[in-house]
Amino acid sequence: MQMEYNRIADIKRLQFIVDSLKKHLPAGSVVLDVGCGNGIIARHLGGEGFNVYGIDISPKAIEKARALTDLPNVSFDVISAEQLVADGRKYHAIICSEVLEHLNQPEKLLNVLYQSLADDGVLIVTVPNGMGPREVLITKPVIALQKKDNWLWRFILKIKSMLGYKGTTVQSDADDLTHVQFFSKHSLENLARRTQFKIISFGKTNFIDDVFPFSFFTKKIKILQKWDGAIAEVLPYQLTGSFVTVWEKNP
After folding, report:
1. Helix (H) and strand (E) counts for the chain?
2. Which of 78, 6, 5 is nearest to 43 (CA)?
3. Helices (H), 39-172
4. Rounded to whole angstroms, how far apart are CA atoms 56 and 38?
5. How far is CA 211 from the centre of its chain?
6. Rounded to an integer, what distance in angstroms lies between the CA atom of residue 93 and that of residue 122?
């Protein structure tokens, strides 16, 4: 099966999702991928034998997902998660990868997912560590500059354009990928409790391989990304780039 991700941290996140599903679900289970973007996770899971239904509110992302997918067990729709509740369908597993950080009220989505998840199912959530190196040193300062919209921000945009930056990611072509939530391990656990879930598994991804100027070298030298991921495993959770987690319903 061809791997569409190039970064080791992304591959590590995807492998966590695959391993978690295989651990908790029987073969052929139905998986819902919420905020599926371009369908990169859904396609990989389809190749692993799961029946996957990907949804996203971005027509642009879903159009690309459909164009890139030819697996009969993977399908996509442009709908919001709230529309799922109306049909009453329950899913063995739900993927919510790199989604919650973009929502002003993540509780609303999680309440919907609780209703759409089978009682013995699992919800897999991945989010950036809001207190990690990437978010603190890059994401938050960039958002602050963007809000000011001054000469420095316009200069940065010009440089990014010259370097070929398009404002999208390999995972999604959605128009707005701004982070509005910055989760710590503690706040993510509190969010789970407030929405009647409990987190049963926590994992880590990377350390500083996506923080400039380190990223300039790690993009070109893959072994540096592998070392960075290995370092992340022995560091405290506060220093991981992202959290990868498995949730269960908590009646």
Report:
1. 11, 7
2. 5
3. 40-47, 59-68, 82-87, 106-116, 133-134, 140-148, 151-162
4. 9
5. 18
6. 5
**Spatial separation of the C-alpha atoms in residues 187 and 57, rounded to whole Å:** 26
pLDDT tens column, 93-102: 999 999 999 9
Residue with tokens 């009969």: 72
Alpha helices in the chain (DSSP H): 8-24, 40-47, 59-68, 82-87, 106-116, 133-134, 140-148, 151-162, 185-194, 214-218, 222-234
pLDDT digits (tens, 9 = 90+) for 9-42: 999 999 999 999 999 998 778 999 999 999 999 9
The C-alpha angle with vertex 102 and arms to 230 and 127, in degrees rounded to 5, equals: 20
How far is the C-alpha of 152 from the C-alpha of 51, rounded, in Å? Answer: 47
Q: Which of 146, 157, 50 is nearest to 95 (CA)?
A: 50
Question: Angle CA(29)–CA(30)–CA(34) in degrees, nearest 5?
Answer: 140
What's the rounded Cα separation, in Å, for the pair 31 and 146? 37
Q: What are 51's strand-pairing partners?
A: 30
Examine residue 213 and say whether the peptide bond preceding it is cis (omega within 30 degrees of 0).
yes
List, in sequence order, every residue forming a beta bridge with 22; answer none if it has no partner. Answer: none
Across-strand partners of 198?
A: 248
Check if the beta carbon of residue 32 is closer than 8 Å to that of residue 95: yes
CA distance 251 to 249: 6
Identity (one letter) of the amino acid at 38? N
200 half-sphere exposure, CB direction, 13 A CA radius = 13
